[in-house]
Structures are given as C-alpha cells and as structure tokens.
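FYVE-type domain-containing protein: structure, please.
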Amino acid sequence: MGGLHVSSVSCGPWHTAVVTSCGRLFTFGDGTFGALGHGDRSCVSQPREVDALIGLRTTSTACGVWHTAAVVDMETQYTNADTPGSRKLFTWGDGDKGQLGHGDRNHSLIPACVASLAEPSICQVACGHDMTVALGTSGRVYTMGSPVYGQLGNPEANGKLPTLVEGQLSDSFIREVSCGSHHVAVLTTKSEIYTWGKGTNGQLGHGDHENRNIPTIVEALKDKQVKSVACGLNFTAVICLHKWVSGNDQSVCSGCHLPFGFRRKRHNCYNCGQVFCKSCTTRKSVKPP
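Here you go.
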C-alpha cells in the first residue's frame, strides 16, 4: 500500500479492512469464513486488495466477527467523490445467522450486493457479532442477522433479509448508527439516542439490564445535545455538547442553589457549562484557549 492515502480503517476481532482515499479496499487477517473477500478462506498477513470491487469506489466498511460489509459507490473510482452515485451495500464472509442479508444462511467468499435492500442509496454500515445494520440516505435503518436478543429492532424479523426498523423511529431521521456485539444505538437529527438489543450489562442506557426488541429512547439523554454515538462490545458511549451558561445570567449555584455574593463566587464548569460556587467545585482545570 505504499504511496496510498488511507481514509478509514475498520477492525473485527480477527481481520481488518482498509479504505483508501480513492476508494480502493484492502483486507488482511483471518480468512477462515471468507471475511477477507478474496474468494478463498486463506489468511493474509499483509493488506491485499479485494479484486471483486476493483473499479468501484468503496466509501466505508464495517467488520463483524467473521463477516464484512462495505458501502460501495457504483460509479467508478475515478469520478468526483463529491458527487456520489448510487451507493449499495455489499457483504461477505460468514452468513450462518443471515447477517449477509442475501436471504439464506450461506457463506460468501467474495463481496455480493444486498439486492433485496429496498433503499436507493446507503450512507453508513455497522456490524455486530452476527448482525449488520445499514443506514440509508433517507434516514431509515435496516437490520439483518440474528434476532436472538432483539437486536434487529423488529419482533417480526427472521433476519435473513434486511428489515426496516420502525416503531419509535418511524418519525425520526437517523444520522448515525453503531453496533455492539448484540445491541444497536442510533442518533437522530434531533440529538436523540435510541437503543435496542441485549441489555445484560446496562449497555442500552435505560436504567436496567433488560433486553429490548424495539427502538427505545434513552431518557437520560433527552436534554443533552448529543453529537455522536459509539458502541463497544457491551457498552455505549456518546459525545455531548453542553450549552454555556453565563455567570452573569445565573444568580444561584447549580449545586447547592445558594445565592452568589461577595463571599460566594461564581465558577464555570467547562464540562457541563453550568455555574457553581467554590464549595460545589471539587475539580479544577486551566481554562481552554
């Protein structure tokens, strides 16, 4: 890959996928189930280009445990990246739980387009242990794969074909999706977070350890300005922006609610943006430039 500019990298436990700035896709690692997309089950110790996608522009990838998914611009690598054509979802590798979305449970040794996906263009993809989540440019979410913990977000889904996730998401435009091993989190344009799937470790953020088979809003984040969401194997993290409160506009401490005065000075928190007195301020840092 000497001389190529890498634009993104995605990793599974046993393999890695690399996308270059010109849309070329390289994979390496364990190819036991065909997750590398090279047409065989060989393991590769150095990046090797996925021949089946040569001539097309790969825009993003995601790695499951034994499968891989990619969003592919059906225009050539040499067209202007700022004017994308129709972007389709390609999957390959282990399909035992239907995570490839091809209507069966077969493995695929090379990338294959998910033809049954009723969406004109895909903008993002995420993979869990044995599931795949696709986000369309329409803001709709599709899932495929194992339904065992409710991670498909649709109680009626069997997982073999892409299923539209509706419920509470019906009136929302989704701008970001993320997968853990067996749970999903999505971010809407209204800065709302919805989660579903396995909740054993509290990764859904609903204050309990229950599984959810439909999208459920995370109430604790409803008043937060969430900018991004990411899932680990069994946890979820978000980045929030906080509204800055001017000390001149607040007359009482946000902690103890006692009034500010000559002896009780105002201190701005650079984490939450609120105003506190010295007694309620336990940590201090230098004001950022």
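Notes: The first strand starts at residue 6 and ends at 11.
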